Amino acid sequence: xxxxxxxxxxxxxxxxxxxxxxxxxxxxxxxxxxxxxxxxxxxxxxxxxxxxxxxxxxxxxxxxxxxxxxxxxxxxxxxxxxxxxxxxxxxxxxxxxxxxxxxxxxxxxxxxxxxxxxxxxxxxxxxxxxxxxxxxxxxxxxxxxxxxxx
Length: 150
What we know:
Blueprint: H1 11-33, H2 42-54, E1 57-58, H3 59-66, H4 70-82, E2 86-91, E3 94-102, H5 104-128, H6 131-145
Antiparallel strand pairs: 1-3, 2-3
């Protein structure tokens, strides 16, 4: 349900937005600390995640999605290609372009990172929260999920 643009934003909404941003930033940083990026930059790991989520893409599409210059994306993809984490194939719709996709080692790398993060998070939730608190977190996440559709 969308509010009119002219509606006043309540103090509680502003506070919730601020605290949510801070907590998610901290949690994201902490999750990233749980896995070994094997020397990859944040942009390189972001490209791998994007390919996992969205599927094959051209270098120019990836550059636009990551908000970097095409030359920067070319350098990023060169490193990922050299490490065997991505594959390049001709675009069936336009033979002049190439589509980049995750290789099996690239997918395994991402799965290892995700598994390490989820294991840390599960252990932390088990150690520091009661069953009732964990249920509250699950209920709050259902509410927060609605933000992605707003």
